[in-house]
Write a structure and sequence with these properties.
By secondary structure, the protein is α/β, with parallel strands linked by helices. Helix content is 38%, strand content 16%. It is built from 21 helices and 20 strands. The chain has a 6-stranded parallel β-sheet with strand order 3-2-4-5-7-6, sandwiched between helices. Strands 11-10-9-12-13-14 form a 6-stranded parallel β-sheet, sandwiched between helices. The chain has a 6-stranded parallel β-sheet with strand order 16-15-17-18-20-19, with helices on both faces. Strand 2, helix 2 and strand 3 form a beta-alpha-beta unit. Helix 3 (52-66) runs parallel beside helix 4 and helix 13 (374-384) runs parallel beside helix 20 (522-534).
């Protein structure tokens, strides 16, 4: 057995877990780990970021894309606190992730040393929204144990983030330990009796509706869900920003349940007599502020299937609760025998017809001012992007154009196509897209707002340095659109804190090494997107929008006038 630096052993443990990329901003607190990355550069790549928030978002995207923990390295104090936004995203999105934090040396601990933070307090489970587990490795010989446990914790039950704290002096110890074998997630199978009860509830139903989402989905489980829906002719809606759980092109698809939900779908959920929630935790965005499905006791019968026992019954008291991981649940459901005749066939057809009407560009429901037709732009994106393209977004009203009018290909086709933060984190789309390009090499399309882009626009430097190509469409309306929308509803015509004075985004993108052009009319967009897709490197298209074009369902003036 060869003695080596603990920092090198840590890198070998990551390789043993199948990690090919780690994202981070370097820090003097984990130089021994950086040296380990140097030694193993042929097997694992350390992607250098420009800000820890961007690095954490890339790691979160890695977890979404691969189903295994995304990995992020940051230094103590400011580095860790910067990364907390990605950790919060991973927690609320149920994404497996491990954040490694280089820390002060052991002999300086608990003295408020330079950049010292109590990570158990800052990230600990008591925060109910940061990390599933926080641990500090004081004994270098136990690095393999801690890393394996972190990966298991991140993947098992409800997936989520884990924090491992690395004292600087521990990483420079010499150690003769070896990595533990690769950890695989545990599959929890549904109780056969519960499945029989679920079947009975379905047979007694007249207006059932499936809501699919949450973490833990794979191409195999998504394909099994599809077969279940086809066998039982069930309408399927996808939870907020999990629109690729079920193929939007299938005749059973009913739409997405989230912010800006179709009024017709919201009505269908309220009219349903049985909600089958497979995977989502049924958070505020998916339930319309706990109104579409009322908490704690829904008006509809509710079957809630989730990987975590702690999640079942936490907000809603379901008619039937089933603890099961998505692979196991979907495989159990696909063999659930359907009757020869289904009572709700017309209901399912009507749900799908509602969805098609909602995305019909010619019947968008509003007349938008200005020379840019946003539904037409998204139609062009749909036409030109390959089926396996990864689409990313941050948070803001701008994302609703993609959510409403783009038809996502399902995970069942073998690839994840949507990366979006269910916790509403601004600045997610740009770094998530760059991370996706580095990891997959597939076409990556990012939609951003002017406010959203400047949260993490610096990561274009990361893209150029690591040869990652993304296409970014930046919608510039000179305002924090979501905040302006709420202002006009609550305090009409009293604008405060939401107007923006922006830089020349095209010049900024070119300074980083992206190509860039500005679009002011609908007809200019398609050739611009064709050029961007054909370019050898990253490209930004700035679309100039009138501030009146505030949402997919109403203009700024209409919202203001309605509120007066």
């Amino acid at each position: 057995m060869t003695t080596q630096l603990a920092g090198h052993l840590l890198v070998e443990c990551l390789i043993a877990q199948g990690v090919t990329h780690a994202f981070g901003v370097p820090g003097e607190s984990y130089l021994a780990v950086l040296d380990g990355f140097h030694d193993h550069a042929d097997r694992i790549r350390f992607v250098i970021n420009r800000q820890e928030g961007g690095a954490a978002f890339m790691a979160e995207a890695q977890g979404k894309l691969t189903g295994r923990p995304g990995v992020c390295f940051v230094t103590r104090g400011p580095g860790a606190t910067n990364a907390s936004i990605g950790l919060h995203t991973a927690f609320q999105d149920s994404t497996p992730m491990v954040l490694f934090v280089g820390d002060v040396a052991s002999d300086a601990r608990d003295r408020e040393a330079f950049q010292e933070v109590d990570y158990n307090v800052f990230f600990g489970p008591s925060t109910k929204g940061m990390a599933k587990r926080v641990e500090r490795i004081d004994d270098a010989r136990r690095i393999p144990e801690y890393v394996a446990r972190a990966f298991a914790t991140a993947m098992n039950g409800r997936p989520g983030p884990v924090v491992l704290v690395l004292p600087e002096d521990m990483l420079t110890q010499t150690v003769d330990a070896t990595p533990l074998p690769r950890v695989e997630p545990v599959q929890a199978w549904a109780d056969p009796g519960a499945l029989r009860e679920l079947r009975s509830l379905l047979l007694a139903s007249e207006r059932p509706l499936v809501i699919a989402g949450g973490g833990g989905w794979t191409p195999q489980s998504a394909a099994a869900l599809q077969r279940f829906a086809e066998n039982w002719q069930l309408p399927v809606a996808n939870a907020f920003r999990f629109q690729d759980c079920f193929d939007n092109h299938l005749p059973q698809y009913a739409g997405d349940v989230g912010l800006g939900i179709s009024p017709a779908l919201a009505r269908r959920i309220r009219e349903s007599d049985l909600i089958l929630a497979i995977g989502p935790r049924l958070g505020e965005a998916t339930t319309g502020g706990y109104t579409l499905i009322e908490a704690p006791l829904p008006k509809q019968k509710l079957v809630h299937i989730h990987a975590s026992a702690e999640e079942l019954g936490r907000v809603y008291q379901p008619t039937l609760a089933i603890q099961s991981t998505m692979n196991a649940a979907a495989r159990s459901l696909e063999v659930l025998s359907a009757p020869p005749g289904i009572a709700w066939g017309q209901w399912t057809q009507a749900c799908h017809a509602d969805y098609l009407a909602n995305i019909d560009v010619a019947n968008g429901g509003i007349t938008l001012p200005g020379p840019v037709d946003m539904p037409a732009l998204i139609h062009t994106v749909q036409k030109l992007l390959p089926a396996d393209a990864v689409l990313t977004n941050g948070a803001g009203n701008f994302a609703s154009w993609l959510h409403r009018f783009y038809r996502y290909h399902g995970l069942a086709k073998g690839f994840k196509t949507q990366l979006g933060p269910t916790n509403g984190a601004m600045g997610y789309g740009v770094p998530a897209g760059i991370g996706a390009a580095i990891l997959t090499g597939r076409t990556v399309f990012t939609i951003a707002g002017d406010g959203d882009f400047l949260m993490n626009g610096q990561e274009l430097a990361t893209a150029v340095q690591h040869g990652a190509k993304t296409v970014i469409v930046l919608l510039n309306n000179g305002t924090y659109g979501t905040i302006r929308m709420h202002q006009e509803r609550e305090y009409p015509a009293r604008v405060s804190g939401s107007d923006l004075v922006n830089p020349d985004f095209c010049a900024l993108a070119r300074a980083y090494g992206y190509t860039a052009e500005r679009v002011t009319h609908t007809a200019e967009f398609e050739p611009a997107l064709q050029r961007a897709l054909a370019a050898p490197g990253g490209a930004l298209i700035e679309v100039m929008l009138d501030a009146e074009v505030l949402t997919t369902r109403g203009t700024l003036s209409a919202i203001r006038n309605k509120s007066r």
